[in-house]
Design goal:
14 helices, three-stranded antiparallel beta sheet, mainly alpha
Length: 361
């Protein structure tokens, strides 16, 4: 018998591996000893199948994951960080369940992984012992990444089927984007504030740029002759995605604003800058935004990204096509932009009225 109890109420496993080397391990629980013995026995059995050409050689799941991670190395830093978190958690999962080769991961493991993802956990950022659950969008990103990892192994021939195939994504409820009304904008810009910050708010509203994009715009990006603002990556700044690099046309108000800023320059580098001519800081501008909104009597939540939502929503209300707005916002897919179309369904009345008198009475 390979498992024997010891005098200290533990269990010793005495087996030989596939090379004939003797292995002795002691466990506190008999179940752990049985699992270890089974793993060694299974490994020897699989080695015999491979030797007799009844099975393909096992491929290290860690090596496969390292190779898959390399395919993400040319992404944006934020994306690399998101994928890195998934890969680190997967490695911990593999270690916890003694998964060494790619074909060790079964559909049952996939179900266990899913249950681990959706269960409530202690909030790592909270000051109290509050239980929190990951957002469906975050869980789906994790599942999609793992599914893509095993799909790649299927394509390579290291496994025959994707063990994640039976796992379905969670339903994500898309919220309608919040935007400032004309009345709120009027009240907002009637308030006193430093001119540089007023410029920044106007810039966010007239361009639909993300804060980081606006803050990193330099005078070299302003094309006055062609009335364009070029949003592009630089040595010290990367756009959110490659699709985010774009050229935004200036309307008359934006052109007038930029000419005003040029004549009254506070910074030789940044058109939209702080009161001291330095690069804008998001936390500082957000605090000012909230203060101004409060003084203006705006009851709805005030935040910087809301200007971007407002830009897109106003364009929708003016009849601009979804595809054009997608390009202006720098979205990767038109599905990201379509959510703005639900803000004003009353604008569709002229469209459906085209069916009036379709059939004779």
């Amino acid at each position: 018998m390979a498992i024997k109890p010891t005098n200290s109420n533990k269990y010793r496993v005495d087996v030989r591996d596939i090379t004939g080397k003797r292995i002795r391990r002691t466990f506190s629980k008999r179940s752990d000893a049985i699992a270890f013995e089974a793993k060694v026995t299974n490994s020897k059995y699989n080695a015999g199948l491979v030797k007799n050409k009844l099975k393909s050689p096992s491929y290290s799941i860690y090596k496969a994951l390292d190779e898959f991670e390399l395919t993400k190395s040319d992404l944006r830093p934020t994306s690399i960080k998101k994928y890195g978190f998934v890969f680190s958690q997967l490695r911990l999962f593999f270690e916890a369940f003694d998964i060494d080769s790619i074909d060790d991961f079964t559909p049952s493991h996939a179900s266990l992984l899913y249950k681990e993802l959706v269960k409530e956990k202690l909030d790592p950022k909270g000051s109290t012992n509050r239980m929190v659950k990951a957002k469906p969008k975050t869980i789906n990103f994790f599942l999609n990444t793992v599914r893509a990892f095993f799909r790649r192994e299927v394509d390579k021939g290291t496994i025959k089927a994707n063990p994640m195939n039976h796992i379905k994504n969670l339903r994500v409820e898309k919220k309608k984007p919040d935007y400032y009304t004309i009345g709120e904008l009027t009240a907002f810009f009637q308030q006193e504030m430093h001119q540089t910050y007023r410029n920044a708010f106007w810039g966010l509203l007239f361009t639909g740029m993300r804060f980081a994009e606006l803050a990193n715009i330099t005078w070299d990006d302003i094309d006055f002759p062609n009335r364009l603002i070029h949003v592009r990556s630089k040595d010290d700044f990367r756009t959110k995605t490659y699709n985010s690099e774009r050229s935004i046309p200036m309307n008359n108000d934006l052109l007038k604003l930029l000419r005003f800023i040029w004549k009254n320059k506070v910074s030789d580098i940044y058109p939209f800058c702080s009161s001291r001519g330095k690069i804008l800081r998001e936390r500082r501008l957000l605090d000012i935004c909230k203060e101004v909104a409060k003084d203006a009597g705006i009851k709805s939540r005030a935040y910087l990204h809301k200007f971007r939502h407002t830009y897109a929503s106003m364009l929708i209300q003016k009849g601009v096509s979804i595809q054009v707005i997608k390009e202006l916002l720098g979205h990767s897919s038109v599905t990201q932009t379509e959510i703005y179309a639900h803000n004003r369904t009353d604008l569709l009345h002229p469209e459906v009225s085209k069916l009036d008198n379709l059939l004779p009475e």
